[in-house]
Amino acid sequence: MFEAKNISVRYGKHLALDNVSLSVGEGECVVILGANGAGKSSLLRGITALSPRAPGGSVHYCGQDISDVPAFGIVELGIAHVPEGRGVFTKMSVEDNLRLGGNPVRARGSLNERRDEVLEMFPKLAERRRQIVGTMSGGEQQMVAIARALMSQPDLLLLDEPSLGLAPIVVGEMFETLKRVRDTGMSILIVEQNVHASLNLAARGYVIEAGRIVGEGDANTLMNDPVISEAFLGH
Amino acid sequence: MFFSTLVIGLVLGGTYALIALGLTIQYGIARIMNLAYGEITIAGAFFVFLLVSSMGLSPLLGLVLVVPLGFALSWLLYGIVFHPLVKRASHAGQLEIDSILVTFGLMFLAQGLFTMFFGSEFAGYSWLQTPVNLLGAKIAAGRVLGLLIAVLIGGGLWLAMQRTRWGVNLRAVANHPEFAPLVGINRNSAARVAFGLGGAIAAAGGAVMSMYQPFTAVDGGFLTMKALVIVIMGGVGNLGGALMAGLMIGVVEAYVSYAIDPGLTLAATYTIFLGVLLWRPKGLFA
Ligand SMILES: Nc1ncnc2c1ncn2[C@@H]1O[C@H](COP(=O)(O)OP(=O)(O)O)[C@@H](O)[C@H]1O
Ligand SMILES: [Mg+2]
């Protein structure tokens, strides 16, 4: 349902992403693994046009060429991006953030049902609907970010290191929640450095190094791949 | 006398607050520091003055007409002048400096045009001068109506910003413009709408001001300065803060002018401003 072909992202002279191609199937969960600075965030930002892509390359989604869609038009198509660092509106309430998530026309019809479903998935947020997001813990803010993305009723969810900076218990809870999201049949493309948990979540993965894809395979193969253990587990 | 001075101050502060609301929206959401802001207010005042004095129409009709005109004028101005600046600005600081320089020039241009068409005399009309008794203070009915209109517009705007999709979107752009696309907001068009909205409020403030106070072609600069003080006191982009700070400045001016000397009101305003800048640079309510 989703396919990026030969996309590159450049910051000035620095080529952060070099001709990367990848695909995500209907209802599939795919992980992108890579060390710090490998270009994982640039890949997601290039996909959603938050960072301009270099000329050449294309992005197709549900049979449609979306290469020229501007960043603000992406979520309307059904692709929700939870960026690294969460991208929540810190001076606004949880309620406001969720409401913003429901901005796309595709989500407006069933806003209240949607909010109830999302709050059921994140019960902690239900108790804190009026709290200003900037006053919440990192884990709670990450929940707000994911909940906001779900409010847009996406078909494809892009997650950029959702476990970054969270306490181990919170990381566990978050992956549990993500499993439930996955089991609803939503397609997910997740960037992670938490290899073990993310390979448990995903069916398939890509390995990215210095802006290029250097390996891919199904989750089991990657889990047992010595190159991956070497790159991420430090042995 | 204590009480009537308070009422006079609130009436004055109501217009200040209204005018400052538009500036805080332009600066907080569109990120444009508009030094020609007061000129939109004066343009609104002249427009209503013309309607009333040469066509005999009601100032209230003038107010209704001036709001969409103020929006359209500012919206066009954004597209012609500021959009290119936004596009070429490499960072927020750059846009701020560029917009200050450009609007400083626009201020003189507008003041020149106003002087050319209307001369440098005071302009004004008399409307609803009959004094009404407001909790012991005798105040011209026009002023009281002006306060009511200011409160209505300010309160309505605040509600719209809290409750409507449109208002929530504008607040999101004020908070983190870089994240706006994630929730489907086109930040450039949001900025343009915010700039237009600010202009509509500026013009409405001018219409209200003209209802009870004569003005000149070059008064805009003072209005901008006063509005800027209120915006910073209230916290940039904080509508409630601007409302409170505007009323406060009005009351302080009223007391200073009554108890000390009318010539000292501006000095008093700037003393408060200095205090805020030194001790509460993010605003009184941060
Ligand atoms: N805004 C930016 N400006 C300049 N260089 C950047 C920017 N963002 C990322 N980079 C560089 O691009 C490379 C890839 O970064 P990134 O995509 O953030 O990697 P990852 O998410 O895998 O850690 C890094 O070398 C990083 O320093
Ligand atoms: Mg990253």
Reconstruct the topology from this structure:
The complex is a heterodimer of chains A (235) and B (286).
Chain A: E1 2-11, E2 14-24, E3 29-33, H1 40-47, E4 58-61, E5 64-65, H2 71-77, E6 79-82, H3 94-101, H4 105-108, H5 111-121, H6 123-127, H7 138-151, E7 156-160, H8 168-183, E8 187-192, H9 195-201, E9 204-209, E10 212-218, H10 219-223, H11 226-233
Parallel strand pairs in A: 3-8, 3-9, 6-7, 7-8
Antiparallel strand pairs in A: 1-2, 1-4, 4-5, 9-10
Helix pairs in contact in A: 3-7
Chain B: H1 2-28, H2 37-55, H3 59-88, H4 92-118, E1 131-134, E2 137-140, H5 141-163, H6 165-175, H7 187-212, H8 220-234, H9 239-259, H10 265-279
Antiparallel strand pairs in B: 1-2
Bound molecules: adenosine-5'-diphosphate (ADP) and magnesium ion.
Adenosine-5'-diphosphate (ADP) binds next to strand 2 and helix 1 of chain A.
Keyphrases for this structure?
heterodimer, A: 235 residues, alpha/beta, Rossmann fold, six-stranded mixed beta sheet, 11 helices, 10 strands, B: 286 residues, mainly alpha, ABC transporter involved in vitamin B12 uptake, BtuC, two-stranded antiparallel sheet, binds adenosine-5'-diphosphate, binds magnesium ion
Describe this structure in a few short sentences.
Chain A is an alpha/beta fold and 235 residues long. Chain A contains eleven helices and ten strands. Chain A has a domain of 164 residues: P-loop containing nucleotide triphosphate hydrolases (Rossmann fold, 3-Layer(aba) Sandwich).
Give your account of this protein's structure.
- The complex is a heterodimer of chains A (235) and B (286).
- The N and C termini of chain A lie far apart (36 Å).
- Chain A is built from eleven helices and ten strands.
- Chain A has a domain at 2-84 and 152-232: P-loop containing nucleotide triphosphate hydrolases (Rossmann fold).
- The relative contact order of chain A is 0.19.
- Chain A has helices at 40-47, 71-77, 94-101, 105-108, 111-121, 123-127, 138-151, 168-183, 195-201, 219-223, 226-233; strands at residues 2-11, 14-24, 29-33, 58-61, 64-65, 79-82, 156-160, 187-192, 204-209, 212-218.
- Chain A is globular, with a radius of gyration of 17 Å.
- In chain A, the strands form two sheets. Chain A has a six-stranded mixed sheet with strand order 6-7-8-3-9-10, sandwiched between helices. Chain A has a four-stranded antiparallel sheet with strand order 2-1-4-5.
- Chain B has helices at residues 2-28, 37-55, 59-88, 92-118, 141-163, 165-175, 187-212, 220-234, 239-259, 265-279; strands at residues 131-134, 137-140.
- Helices cover 75% and strands 3% of the residues of chain B.
- The radius of gyration of chain B is 18 Å and the shape is globular.
- Chain B is mainly alpha-helical.
- The longest helix of chain B is centred in the N-terminal third of the chain and has 30 residues, at 59-88.
- In chain B, helix 3 (59-88) packs antiparallel against helix 7 (187-212) and helix 5 (141-163) crosses helix 6.
- Chain B has one domain (2-279): Orthogonal Bundle (ABC transporter involved in vitamin B12 uptake, BtuC).
- The A-B interface holds A 48-50, 70-76, 80-81, 83, 87-92, 96, 99-101, 103-104, 148, 152 and B 165, 168-169, 171-172, 175-176, 179-187.
- Bound molecules: adenosine-5'-diphosphate (ADP) and magnesium ion.
- The site of magnesium ion has 4 residues of chain A, from helix 1.
